[in-house]
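hey can u check if this looks right to u? its 179 residues, i copy pasted from the old doc so theres a chance i mangled smth
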Amino acid sequence: MTGTGMEYARALFSLSRDEALDDRILKELEVVLHVSEENPTFLRILSAPNLSKEERCGILDNVFRDKVHPYVLNTLKLLTERGSARVLPDMCRGYTQLYQDAHGILPVKAVTAVPLTAQQETRLKAKLEEMTGKTVLLTNILDASCLGGMRLDFDGKRIDDTVSHRLDVLRSLLLDSTV
């Protein structure tokens, strides 16, 4: 994440938090992030040197006016006017991170070879919430190369209990041992 994107995220989060708009702004930024990821040309247009600042801000008005809070629209315009539209996705992700930190939400990725059942998800989420004291936002990612078991990624940590990891450890032990 860029420093510029996080700087704008902090400013927008501080403002929205002070006015109890942080939930609304989060949802709107999720839409903005989706638009920018689904349409890569969108950010290129907002950064196009052959368009004036007014034209680029006009595009933002056409796309987002009356659909997002003025704070969001004005932040997007500031980024565009200052030639930093390319950091818009980082700003959206930074805001989400600040929101989750402030609300005690912990995003967790559970990587498995097969999808978790609803019961497994519920039990895993409850266990992680008990362990961390936070509300867990669980995402199950499928990766057949795990072979079995589960890998959890959260809060900069990795707990790897996959079959492929166990086999790697065993291989390492066998290669390091002397006969």
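The beta strands are 105-112, 135-142, 149-154, 157-162.
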